Amino acid sequence: MNNAIELADVGWRASKVFALDSVTIRVPRGAIYGFLGPNGSGKTTTIRLFMGMMKADTGAIRVLDREVPREMKSILARVGYVPERPHVYPALTVAEQVRYHASFFRLFDDGWARELIDRLRLDPDQKIARMSKGETGKLLLLLALSQRPELLVLDEPTEGLDPVARRDVLTAVLDYVSETSATVFISSHLVHELERICDWVGVMDGGRIVAETPMQHFKNGTKRLRVAQAPATAADAPFTLVSRQSENGVGSTETWIVRGWDASMRYYFEGAGATLRDVVDLDLEESFVELLRSSRPSTKLGS
Amino acid sequence: MYQPMLFVHWKQVRLLLIPFVVAAFGLPMLAVQGLGADATGGVSAEVYQIVSGYQLWLPLFPMLAGAIGIVLALTAWNWDHRLGHVYALSLPVARWEYALLKMGAGVALGLVPALAFWVGAHVAAASVALPAGLNAYPNQLALRFLLAMIMSYAFFFALGSGTIKTTVWVVSAIFAVLVGSELLGDVLVLYFSGLEGVSFLELATDWLVEMGGPFEVFVGNWTLIDV
Q1: B1 vs A87: CB contact, 8 Å cut-off?
Q2: pTM for the model
């Protein structure tokens, strides 16, 4: 099998208001997979399901070729996990926490942990309760990386960190990946951050997966078009029209957001009697917002 | 894994444990304070037994053991509850194994006040001049103290391992059984005259604390000096 994480039609219901609905995710081995979604969309719940912390109501989950939750012990021995909120014991010092953590992981690399303490500028004698958010974030990453995991699961790892700490964390992750070819699953709503490092992207909204595609495809396939004499409908277009809007609210020149765009599709406008004035690449954040807009037909999103 | 687990629990409970260790050491000595001073001067064995068996201090022994058990149990789960059990669940150990390691760490820490109590009981026994016919039982008393502490620890450890919701359910269920059995007794008396005078609540509590029930250790003989 070529996937590090596989969720097939996974369902989980917390209440009448929130549920995961038929979630299917495939994270290829060796990929850096960005898991995007607005707050409350179900990202952390999804992670907790495949980390075996909660049990899915329906569907099947496999991580590193093993079944969740039945083979959780052997899975967790190979997974480094950085949760959304710090989960380490506040009364311990950095060195004590590292020792405690190491006792559970057979492959824990003490030498590398010491090196990371230096590189991430952490004080081994500092009490965790007195550490800043950035320092705690770095400690969590240090613990996860020192396990030498095959799969690194990072749930909002840079949330609330200052730019320096954020850069340190991401650099440490990238260094590890370049050295080991490990798979990284990184959840965030900080879209720009993922744009730089991920090669796959999955988008979740309202407990559903609304897109899962290679990053390049996701970014390149979504465009903003300026169309003069725009046709009334685009039902026969070779691309997907996500939204359309008249420029300044009036006139026949419109701005279209389209998905699945390819340069050869210009011919469509000639055939429809329209003129394609401009094609603008959207960055990941714009693509993300437009994707959410299209997946929520009755909801207006800000851009 | 056990040693780091023990260290983490120790780090949490050490300051709380200090007054308990002092109390465990001092309580047996306070209990015999002033006794036996004039034992050779004719204090009868009967009087001595009454004094040592029913004096004010002795009910404090099981209470102290119970309190230490509670403190150890609550601190065992304190951080895990505060951190939503996320850390524990991300470790590659089975849940039962994790709970067992934690349980074992608490029992080991409980040995510290138990040892203090054992030493205190020996010192207390040695400080009293016993008249003929009376004996000191510091080892037995210390063993009872240890067992009571473990019993209390195990009970509250089990309660504390669940969520607050689970704990409320369990405590409510115990309460409901006790109260329900009493109400049931009142109803059954209407149909079965032979049950008159039988208290189901009393039977239930008797089962828990006497007749070999799990809490019997708390109500047994806690005297240090006996015939």
Answers
A1: no
A2: 0.77
By Cβ distance, the residue of A76, A85, A99 closest to B92 is: A76
Measured between its terminal Cα atoms, the distance across chain A in Å is: 39
**Continuous segment of H or E residues that includes residue B152:** helix B138-161
Q: Could you tell me if B93 lies within 8 Å of chain A, comparing CB atoms? A: yes
Tokens of B101: 């390691």
Interface test with A, best of B85, B86, B101, B102 (most A CBs within 10 A): B86
The residues of chain A scoring below 50 in pLDDT are 299-303
Distance of CA A267 to the CA centre of its chain: 35
Query: Which of B4, B84, B86 lies closest to A100 in CB terms?
Result: B4
CB contact (8 A) between residue A73 and residue B4: no
Would you give the distance in Å from CA A143 to the centre of its chain?
Answer: 21
Rounded alpha-carbon distances, angstroms, from residue A126 to A91, A111, A135, B180: 10, 19, 10, 54
Q: Per-residue pLDDT tens for B140-195?
A: 889 989 999 999 999 889 888 877 778 788 888 877 877 777 777 777 777 777 77
CA distance B9 to chain A (A): 10
Token pair, residue A256, equals: 């279209």
A62 φ, ψ to 5°? Answer: -130, 135
User: What gap in Å lies between CA B42 and CA B54, rounded to an integer?
Assistant: 20
| pLDDT at B38 exceeding the cut of 60 | no
Paired tokens of A169:
């964390």
**CA-to-CA distance for B209 and B1, rounded, in angstroms?**
36
Is the CB of B54 inside 8 Å of chain A's CB atoms? no
Provide the residue ranges of all domains of chain B, joining segments of one domain with +.
2-161+216-226
pLDDT tens digits for range A7-37: 999 998 887 778 888 899 999 999 999 998 8
